[in-house]
Amino acid sequence: MVSRMNRNNDKISSFQLGLILAVNMVGVGILTLPRTITEAVGPDGWIVLCITILIVFCLTLFMTKLTRKFPQETVVEFSTTLIGKPLGLIISIGFCIYFIIISAAEVRVFGEIAKEYLLFNTPIEVLIITLLATAAYLVRSGIEPIARMAQIVFPIVTCIAIVLILPVLPEIDMTNLLPFFHTPILKILKAIPITFFSFIGIEVLMVFSAFVVDLRNITKHAFMSVGMVGAIYMFIIIVTVARFGIIESTHIIWPSIELFKTVDLPGAFIENIQVFVIAMWIFSVFMTLVVLYFGASLILSRVLKSREQNYFVLPILPIIYYISLIPDNIAQVNDYIDLLSNYLGSFYVIILPLLLLGVSIFRKKKGGKKGA
User: Fold this and answer.
1) Quick one: which of 14, 176, 270, 275 could link to 217 by a disulfide (CB 3.0–4.6 Å)?
2) What's the rounded Cα separation, in Å, for the pair 359 and 32?
3) What gap in Å lies between CA 256 and CA 37, rounded to an integer?
4) CB 277 within 8 Å of CB 31
């Protein structure tokens, strides 16, 4: 039944899934991560990030072990199988709502950034609805075009960002990262959630794995995505703190953007590099929105036993739009994102995969004993 619900062209490789995970994790969080982690632990942010990456690797391993047990099934199907239909459906609907709210937060931050740096006189409502309409078009195309888009966007955006940041490197002062290991261990442990929630997005693995044709390689490529995103975060944190210093890094609202503001390319045909960087970041946010948007519509279609995920794309659009306009300002948006990450994020990234994997292992052992 599940396999018939997947269209013939809706198949992706585990490598493509890895890139989808990567573009989904690198979204809004990269803009504020250097500031928030520096506020918490000063120059030892890289230590916290190293610990976090190891934790995310472990959680990713648990998720891939779980999804490999249920090929061609999303979290909707295998959660109802493992913990019963009523509870499984509640969790699945919650997953859908979670994706919708995160999507709303992403487009609101996009609107605020675009209005502040690019389109000063354009109403934020117009910016948001334009991004949503464009995303809806790609979401309706299916998972394969989304995967192909991720294959294009992630390498290009990453390479361009690295090239543009190279002129900053001669200006950095590595002594700004000293002293090492100065932060008490308890304070470092308390700061782990700050970096951990920058990896929010890895949980879509439990939805998109249903389309993967080579599940045997899913762990390798999921690890690849976590490693790449972790390396990007590490690079941004170290360069930002080394360039601006501890005090200034904690007072800049968008330190990752301001970092590129200091770039000066003599003879370059682009005068304002910062605008170009924001344009590249918008591609990243667009892909994050597309992945979450597709995930929400797919889960809803599976919950309602619909053969077509496309039917739910347009009805979800106004919901995302109106939720995105609820916060009064960007500070409220960040507060809502923190609240969402702390509760729903923790549940769907940590508790749910561990719970479902534990139940599946217990059932297998119980079945083995009965067979004996």
Assistant:
1) 14
2) 37
3) 13
4) no
Burial of 281 (0-12, 13-18, 19+ CB in 10 A): buried
Q: Which H or E run includes 201?
A: none
Average pLDDT over residues 95-112: 93
Reported residue count of the chain is: 372
Residue-wise pLDDT for 28-83, tens only, equals 778 788 998 998 888 898 999 999 999 999 999 999 999 999 988 999 999 999 99
Answer for the pair 218, 67: CB distance below 8 angstroms, yes or no: yes
Residue 184 near residue 41, CB atoms below 8 Å: no
110-134 per-residue burial string, b: 16 or more CB within 10 A, e: under 16: bbbbbbebeeeeeebeebbbbbbee
> Please, what is the end-to-end C-alpha distance for the chain in angstroms?
31
The Cα 165–Cα 184 span in angstroms is: 32
Name the class of domain 10-351: mainly alpha
Domain ranges of the chain: 10-351
How far is residue 349's CA from residue 198's CA, in Å, rounded to a whole number?
12
**And the tokens for 210?**
């249903």
Q: Which amino acid is at 308?
A: E
